[in-house]
Amino acid sequence: MVGIRDVARKANVSPATVSRVLNEDKTISVSVSTRQRIFEAAATLNYDINKRKYVKKRLPSIGVISAISKASEEKDIYYKDLRAGLEEEASRLHIGMNRMYNVSDNPRKWKDLNQLGALIVVGTIAKPAIADLLAQNQHLIVVDNPDIQQEVDMVYADLERMTKAVLELFIEQGHTNIAYIGGYQIDINELGEKSTTENEKRLRAYLHFMRDNHLEKQINYYLGEWTEESGERLTKKLLNKQKQDLPTAILIGSDPLALGVYKALQKENIIIGKDIVLVSFDNIEAIAHLSPGLTSVAINAKAIGQSAVRLAVERIDHLRDDPIILTYPTKLVVRESFIPNK
């Protein structure tokens, strides 16, 4: 019986490309000639495309384990969008996704993970926990956790690169007294237990950048929860500690934190965009009402979720054995809180 690998060899492309083209994946970018070659190869080999789509509907389901609690996920637009991307892509590819766990669930009750076609893990789950999950299911796709060393598929936004790029813009505009306000990294172990660390990607990039540019004496960072309330509290702490030498620029780890930063600065009549410039991450809808407008790094969380599902399907289909790492670019959306001079 003719299989997808036969079509791939005939068309001189990868099995993954054949699968995505034949299943009308609109996110794949291939030339018209390549697309035509794939369909011609399928026709020459009498490969039944319609039967292939029917088989796709009968694939084993995908499980999802999120390091983010259900309550936090509801409040965080990034994770809501990521979850939407997972669910929409699974629906589009006609694959089940009805086993979804959060860290609020007891990991000891996570049973029969080996019965799933693949497993998507979202967030900073500790290395031993990843190893434990791999022992149960080899088709593992890890989202937003680039620091693990295991050979698994990974998808994440390139936050460290963009952090460095923003800090370089600050330096170019003459800012050397740069503070960072962010949140702690929460790691989850195989028992669902939480540990708090400072090994968070944006903070790590900030510290490396400041040291590499011989600005060690200007390093000042404030960490808490990833919430508006925490942002306001941390900014008040910054203003009290550095009132004799206020930073001229603040990098903020997320937009929810930035909402609180705005409140604290404006209560002290500090003019944002003039006295202190600000850049944040996420570019969520909630910042639309801020005045002056907040410069923020846009992250396509939905696309990250969609890619994770596609990688899972490739594993289920046995289209490849080697792991793939997808790094999603980010984009700086410039508004009045920081407008770099050209």
Would you spell out the secondary-structure blueprint of this structure?
Layout: H1 4-11, H2 15-22, H3 32-44, H4 49-56, E1 62-66, H5 70-75, H6 77-92, E2 99-102, E3 118-122, H7 127-136, E4 140-143, E5 153-157, H8 159-172, E6 178-183, E7 185-188, E8 194-197, H9 201-212, E9 220-224, H10 228-241, E10 249-252, H11 255-267, E11 277-282, E12 295-298, H12 301-316, E13 325-328, E14 331-333
Parallel strand pairs: 1-2, 1-3, 3-4, 4-5, 5-13, 6-9, 6-10, 10-11, 11-12
Antiparallel strand pairs: 7-8, 12-14
Structure commentary:
By secondary structure, this protein is an alpha/beta fold. It has 3 domains: 4-51, lambda repressor-like DNA-binding domains (434 Repressor (Amino-terminal Domain), Orthogonal Bundle), CATH 1.10.260; 62-157 and 301-329, 3-Layer(aba) Sandwich (Rossmann fold); 159-299, Response regulator (Rossmann fold, 3-Layer(aba) Sandwich). It contains 12 helices and 14 strands. The chain has a 6-stranded parallel β-sheet, with helices on one face. Strands 9-6-10-11-12-14 form a 6-stranded mixed β-sheet, sandwiched between helices. A two-stranded antiparallel sheet has the order 7-8. Helix 7 (127-136) links the parallel strand 3 (118-122) and strand 4 (140-143). Helix 6 (77-92) packs parallel to helix 12. It is elongated. 40% of the residues are buried.
